Amino acid sequence: MDLDLPEDVLALRATVREYVRDRLVPLAPVIEEEDDIPPAVLAEMKELGLFSIPFPEEYGGLGAGELGYCVALEELGAANAAISNTIGGHSSLSGAAIMLRGSEDLKQRYLPRMATGEMLGAFALTEPNAGSDAAHIQTMARRKGDEYIITGSKLWVSNGPHADLYTVFAVTDRSRGSHGISAFVVERQMPGVEIGKVDKKMGLRGSKTSEVFFRDVRVPAGNMIGREGEGFGLAMQTLDGGRIALGASAVGQAQAALDRAVEWSRQRVQFGKPIAANQAIQWMLADSEVDVHAGRVMVYHAAAKLDSGRRVSHEAAIVKLYCSEMCNRVVDRALQVHGGMGYMTELDIERMYRDARILRIYEGTSEVQRMIIAADLLKAE
Questions:
Q1: Quick check: is 230 catalytic?
Q2: What are phi and psi of 190, to 5 degrees?
Q3: Residues 360-369: what's their mean pLDDT?
């Protein structure tokens, strides 16, 4: 595979990198302190088209594909994981599900408004008793005339409190197991949609997650994404792209931590010399550079393969497993390089350390990714 990025992707990266450096990085302490991304910043991001990157041009998107999107998300992850998480829930998950199997009517109704950021999307799959075991969700959708009536609740919905629409997965035929799950676009304004508890998290401050309740919500049958019974397959296909994009954000977070560790090691003087002169520090930096490079190559390869229209479930699991674990290793080393100051809230490393921990859990735990990879390896030929 040719890993040289196309000119349009390089131009996109340059634009996003400049905005991250000049605008978003200085705002990281504000987002952390207030647990919110300032509305003015979200408006700027919408104006710059950051909510539209992977959406096709015919629906108002930038049409940059998965590779362009991952390159941009890497830069945004370097600024603040809360920002890349907000865009990821909107584009990688909610919007991607509509792009993958939505009818032309659904695409025309929702994607242009999602591309401009007028409508913020959320992906509602996880439930109190269905996390890794997503095939056993309990939310029900029963057909009544030209509508489906959805009843149930979802947990830890990224963008949940602020979303304008939800991609919701519900059981339409309990007797068919995972083949009895269907997907719907549910608008926030539909009667019966209620926001529950907004979560207080260890990290990702500024990225809002919450419970969402669906109390006999009447949804037009035309809001079904794909056909009845295709929901579980759609969820897994959507998560393939989402896991690659999450890997890109993890690479960005790891790169930012490594950059800070390099800078600190040059400045921090102990025993009469910069700590960068110590082999122990050099080896931590070198190992982190190897880790970040490997993760970046994995992400770009998987993203390019997805853009070519090929199946990427295996590669997506590898990316999610490696990059999430890698980011935690790199950030941990960066904190160690900083010593006691790395543990203090004055520096970004402390926040990065907390933000990185969720990477090994959401959108499929590391253990689930190992199960997927092993099942592929052991599949009978």
A1: no
A2: -70, 135
A3: 96
